[in-house]
Amino acid sequence: MGYLCGRSGEKSILLKALTSKTSELVTVYGRRRVGKTFLVRHCVEEASTVRYLEITGAIEEDGRAISERDFVQNVNLAWIHAFGSTPRITDLDGVFEALVLLVKETQAANQTLVLFMDEFPWICQVAKRVYSKIVFLWNNVFEASGNVKLFVAGSSTSWILDNIINAKAGFAKRFTYKLKLKPFTLSETAEYLAHKGFNLPPAMVCDIMIALGGIPYYLDALNPAKSIAENLWQIFCASSGRLSGNNEYHTMFRYLFGANPRYQAVVDFIASKRYGVTQTEIAQHFEGRVKPSGALKTVIDNLVACEFLGKRIQLFNTTRGIHYFVIDNYVNFYTKWLKHRDQMDLPGFVHMLNQPAYYSWAGFIFEILCFQHQDQIKQALGIGGIGASTHIYYRDGGSEEDGCQVDLIIRRDDLCLTVCEIKYHTSDYQLSKNDAEKMRTIERSLRQYIRTKRKKNHSINFCYIVKEGVAPGGYFSSITPSVVSVADLVGSPRVE
């Protein structure tokens, strides 16, 4: 197998499951292309002494389930790949019978059997009885045998949550381990790119993540012999590019949500709103009402579960004032810059990246990156051991208070609010008089807000989260902010 970047905690759990003396039911889930299959195969290969069968679900181009006949044929092919021959399975019942016989065979030989059902939600779409039958086999054959490691993986996080992790029947409370794979962090992306031969400063790693996110499959297409702009053009615009055209974008929705067009429509709508939208605004746009219908609420919840959308919560208000944002960087880049454009040549693409409009948009995506690195920001501030939550703060001006907007506030358990100003600049940021006045305005507004909400008094301090750094002098000393740079978030990535 290739290089496994990060994933040390997940790898440890999988190896523990593979080497235990009991049967294990392990659930692995996360975004499409995030590396679920690679991780499982890597760990199985490292275990080396196990018998291994991998069955992968599939769907038709239009998002419908494949036929039982096609699924059975796929199982036969998987059997040949794993063991060199097939029991000549002819129907769905034959699949289950063959699995039972395989368990008995490996049990008699005192062997560990790893059964990996990849894209498990698609497998269960083949026929209604597939899910219940696999549950039955786990409860009555696999678990009791003591030698079966059943790994189920899926990109449809909402399906995995509903039918396995939070299920009230079927696999309810049956899994022994659950692993949610997330995209690489800035540090992990830097490590991965360094392994590929890149020698990039942290700010350039950030630029790559702004367009691609920390998705291993996308990052794997990068070539260290080319510039960042050349790489992005090659991936997005060249005819042979891994993400060229609209195939990847539409495929993600089709694979996760079938033929329902509402999911993509909701994402497209929210992606067009720089400052996010409330649930009411979504309902008004799609249904002309204040509250979303049950069907639309399900769409929103599933998009959050699958991490297309993220929620930012208003300070001191956990129910109202929630704003939804598109948090998938590839989706944001594609919908903003490529979805409605014809093919671009390399000079045109480079010109686009150098426009003020692109830098302005990149600053917005940098804010999303900061929300995705909350823990790293807290560590950089030296408050990693203090309980804290992150919020937004939007306040209209009034007779007794000044209006303001803060895109990230850290509310700490030690009664301190850290107001974070996020700046995406290509050089060290120089604080101006307006910056100092803005922070004081925010402080006055927050103190009034705290009194209005009847909360305990909080101390208020300031932090600048920047791409490069903050220049000394100027008005820095008037507000004495903490500073967190991308270099702080990247740290010193491990390179092998």
CATH topology of the largest domain: Rossmann fold
The parts where pLDDT drops under 50 for at least 5 residues are none
What's the total count of β strands? 12
Query: Percent helix among the residues?
Result: 40-55%
**Strand order within the widest sheet?**
2-3-4-1-5
CA-CA gap between termini? 15 Å
CATH architecture of the largest domain: 3-Layer(aba) Sandwich
Question: What is the residue-mean pLDDT, rounded to a whole number?
Answer: 92
Number of helices: 22
Largest sheet geometry: 5 strands, parallel
CATH homologous superfamily designation of the largest domain: P-loop containing nucleotide triphosphate hydrolases
- Strand content is 15-25%
Global structural class? alpha/beta
Could you say how many structural domains there are in total?
4
What does this structure look like?
- This protein is α/β, with parallel strands linked by helices and 496 residues long.
- It folds into four domains: 174 residues, Rossmann fold (3-Layer(aba) Sandwich); 77 residues, no CATH class; 87 residues, Arc Repressor Mutant, subunit A, CATH 1.10.10; 121 residues, Trna Endonuclease, Chain: A, domain 1 (3-Layer(aba) Sandwich).
- The protein contains 22 helices and twelve strands.
- Strand 10, helix 20 and strand 11 form a beta-alpha-beta unit.
- Helix 8 packs across helix 9 and helix 13 packs across helix 15.
- The chain is globular and about 75 Å long.
- The two termini are 15 Å apart.
